[in-house]
């Protein structure tokens, strides 16, 4: 078969079989749209799928030991270009571009095929900064696609987290995406198409990648060394995202820290109602979390959302839907008595809004202080 290698490569990525088949068919029939968008979370393996697809488009039916395939597998193929969010670092002090971080990018993606933007920020040490794709990257892309391909065939520009394109960068790329040179594929990877400019979005053919089955994820984790109980628990908590399940498995130590923060937070918030002395403790807790990096703060909020959801499911004896495995002496069953249908939605809404404001460089101390005061009130709200 012409694309045997691609099939094997795709099979290394858990789930999404229907989407893989459609992509394989488009390659077999040589009907490759010039502008495509892969929509889905990082943790569902969308970047890995984009790389597999880009390699297949550019390398065609080349065997794994061919020169083209070896270069593609090493992320050094001259006709495959990667664009991704960056920020100023100690090494790159001004006008950061993807090319300036190409060595770090190769190392990072090879180590973490289910990479998230949070992982990338940590890898570069830019956790306290908001990474973006700037206009200089767009100008470099335009320059690259204006030249002939090195191998004489297709070339591909993979834009990871395309929603991080600045308005100026988006406008610069618009014409190239709309009318690309012959045999040029723009492949935009984005968690949510609605985060892209409508002018960019309307010019791309969309492939959506959704959840992976719990069974497949659990089997994947067991293969990585997890025991059956932990694998099934993390598969349920992952909400169908393989990378998230893998991250939860690898970061059990961090989760223990998040759990300790959470327990201290909710206990203090519960005692703070009508007690000025405890309110000061709650302010101190907010200050402690505010001193952490913004991505760590967002990860903690995500953990808190997951735990609150597990609590409400436990309250209504539906823990199998959202199980939680404690790593400290915290007892979810006791806490679950205070989380119910009357307060779960306001709690989740407050957490999500806090993450939204952190994403937009809001003052972390103010955000967590306000969130803590809301939680104090909501924890005491009675079930109707």
Write the layout of secondary structure elements.
Layout: H1 4-11, H2 17-28, E1 35-39, H3 46-59, H4 67-73, E2 80-83, H5 102-111, H6 117-124, H7 135-145, E3 155-160, H8 167-178, E4 184-190, H9 198-201, E5 205-208, H10 214-223, H11 228-237, H12 242-250, H13 252-271, H14 276-290, H15 294-315, H16 332-335, H17 344-359, H18 364-379
Parallel strand pairs: 1-4, 1-5, 2-3, 3-4
Distance linking N and C termini:
62 Å
Main beta sheet: 5 strands, parallel
Question: Percent helix among the residues?
Answer: 40-55%
| Structural class assignment | alpha/beta
Going across the major beta sheet, what is the strand order? Answer: 2-3-4-1-5
Rg is 23 Å
Report low-confidence residues grouped into runs of 5 or more: 1-8
Identify the overall geometry.
globular
Question: Can you give the mean pLDDT?
Answer: 87
Record field, number of beta strands:
5
Structure, explained:
By secondary structure, this protein is of the alpha/beta class. The chain has a five-stranded parallel beta sheet, with helices on both faces. The N terminus is likely disordered. Helix 10 crosses helix 11 and helix 14 packs across helix 18. Helix content is 54%, strand content 7%.
